[in-house]
Prior knowledge:
- The chain is built from three helices and no strands.
- It has helices at 11-22, 35-46, 52-66.
Amino acid sequence: MLKVSVDYPSYDEEKEMYKKVISSESEKISKVLTKNEIFEIQDLVNSVYVSDAIFDFVTNIVDATRNPEKYSLDYYKKYIQF
């Protein structure tokens, strides 16, 4: 799970974004990894052992945000939004 909060750009940043959208110039993008390197990294990540205790811990945290009363966290319910 991932939550990404993105604020509004500043006035100058927004103005620059508009200019780039209508500009005919394109940004120079350079390759960082090959396709095979990405697959190798994915395989490496998939080989990392994670114990059930970690899965339980994370699942409990997520469940507590959905059902704070189950964890005696009623007070915090007003601070939790979906």
